Amino acid sequence: MESISDADRVVFRDFSLATGESDLQLVISLIEKELSEPYPIYTYRYFVHLWPEHTFLAFLDGKCIGCIVSKLETHSKRGSFDRKRGYIAMLAVHPEHRRLGLGRKLVAKSIERMREQQADEVILETELTNQAALKLYESFGFIRDKRLAQYYLNGNDAYKLKLYLSHPYMDQ
């Protein structure tokens, strides 16, 4: 008999404004435990209330074990066309469930949603020392756009990463 792995039992869903406060608490709880940067409640509310369709949660047996928080905005104009930029603000996976591809699936869902909404590029920042994150994002085609000195409150430098979804100089 073939067993079903934890990775196969994970259920992904969008953030729900209908259950917003409970979903918001799940996101906050996971991110506060897993990311080095503290965020005020207003930061979370900013993202999930303005762009709920760009926040995804991963559940295993009813427990939230992963999430990604993103947004999509008009960045600039090129001729008469708006250029849209996606931004991945936060990604967290519970330590007991890492190495199952959940971070990869969450990033893929975020990028796919941005593509559906005609994003031209996606940006994010990650700590210079976070080799796992750099490897993950670079596997999607992100490039190191610039180094940001002492970007984080802990004094660590960051890389700004960029993924082009359309050619940046194309006339539209």
UniProtKB/TrEMBL annotation:
CDD domains, A to Z: NAT_SF (cd04301)
Coiled coil: none
InterPro entries assigned: Acyl_CoA_acyltransferase (IPR016181), GNAT_dom (IPR000182), NAA30-like (IPR044542)
N-acetyltransferase domain sequence ranges: 10-166
One GO CC annotation: NatC complex
Keyword vocabulary terms for this entry: Acyltransferase, Transferase
PROSITE patterns found in the cross-reference section: GNAT
GO molecular function, one term: protein-N-terminal amino-acid acetyltransferase activity
Homology family: Belongs to the acetyltransferase family. MAK3 subfamily.
Name the record gives this protein: N-acetyltransferase domain-containing protein
